[in-house]
Design a protein that fits this description.
By secondary structure, the protein is of the alpha+beta class. It has two helices and four strands; from the N terminus they run βββαβα. Pfam families: Fer4 (PF00037).
Length: 82
């Protein structure tokens, strides 16, 4: 399950430096998360750090278009950091 930054993002830049997979970048108007790089911090932390530092409640959510099992996230982590 990759994460998704909703359009209520205020571009505070808190999430980008926290992402261990460098999945977050500034998009056309707001920050975006690359679902091919997002592992929801599986392999790094117990919880997604971007969600932890985001000052806007429910701004970063599970992306309904990119649902993955924990094993898929672990496999993606292994591939990214091979």
């Amino acid at each position: 399950m990759a994460l998704l930054i909703k359009d209520n993002c205020i571009n505070c830049d808190m999430c980008d430096p926290e992402c261990p997979n460098e999945a977050i970048s500034f998009g056309a108007e707001i920050y975006e998360i690359d679902p091919n790089l997002c592992t929801e911090c599986v392999g790094h932390y117990d919880k997604p750090t971007c969600q932890a530092v985001c000052p806007i409640n429910n701004c970063i959510i599970v992306d309904p278009d990119n649902v993955e099992t924990e094993q898929q996230l672990i496999d993606k982590f292994a591939t990214i950091h091979a």
